[in-house]
Amino acid sequence: MTRIRWWWAGMIGILMIAGVLGGCSGGGGGHDDGHHGSGVCLLLSEVEPNGTALTAQFLGSLFVDDCFVVTGSIFNVTDVDNYTVLIQENLTLVVTLDHSSLVDFDIQLFDADTGQLIRDCGTAVVPEVCAVSLGVRSRAIAVDVVVTSHIGAGTYTLTLDAQ
Questions:
Q1: Domain 34-162 falls under CATH 2.60.120.380
Q2: 21-39 residues labelled b (16+ CB within 10 A) or e (exposed)
Q3: Residues 53-92: pLDDT tens digits?
Q4: Phi then psi for 83, rounded to 5 degrees?
Q5: Tens of pLDDT, residues 103-156
Q6: Rounded to 5 degrees, what angle do the CA atoms 48, 52, 57 make?
Q7: In sequence order, which residues have a C-beta less than 8 Å from that of residue 129 and are 6 or more positions away?
Q8: Could you state, in order of their start, the residue ranges of all structural domains in the chain?
């Protein structure tokens, strides 16, 4: 039994090394600019604590054609979930919040540096979809995406799609 576990652990290690080396071919697309977008969504789970702007879960940098999908939970109407993304280039951020039709969750987008509201995307429609054009000038823009409950508690799927 022990030999089988070691064999699997060794095999997984070999596959991980092969994946890393295969992704680092230096063929001109990837490590030069720090962008790893491939049009595939990165799947993530909510990590607590993320109830304030200071404890927001950092999802990563977004470039055109990048996508994050986060599964999360709102435990009660006072629960707040904060996520931060770094916008690296001019793009339209399409935010989709899918949840049960028995609850009403809302999305707000804030400038993470100033706390200024960029857009309140709260609607009573499921899924909630909000598109915001963001222009990057001299430096990247940190955006806080905040999920709140208007009515009820439950799970949700938050999708951030850079177009």
A1: yes
A2: eeeeeeeeeeeeeebebee
A3: 999 999 999 999 999 999 999 999 999 999 999 999 999 9
A4: -130, 145
A5: 999 999 999 999 999 999 988 899 999 999 999 998 999 999 999 999 999 999
A6: 45
A7: 94, 95, 96, 121
A8: 1-32, 34-162
Identity (one letter) of the amino acid at 34?
G
At 79, the amino acid letter reads: D
The size of the chain, in residues, is 163
Residue with tokens 């039994």: 1
Cα angle at 160 between 157 and 163, to 5 degrees?
145
Three-state SS string across 55-102, please?
CCEEEEEECCCCEEEEEEEECCCCCEEEEEEEECCCEEEEEEEEECCC
DSSP per-residue string spanning 84-153: EEEE-SSEEEEEEEEE-TTSEEEEEEEETTT--EEEE---SSSSEEEEEEE---SS-EEEEEEEEEEE--
Tokens of 59: 């999802």
The separation between CA 151 and the C-alpha centre of its own chain, rounded to angstroms, equals 23
The two three-digit tokens of residue 116, written as one number: 């200024």
51, exposed or middle or buried, with CB in 10 Å at 0-12, 13-18, 19+? middle
Place of tokens 């000038």: 137
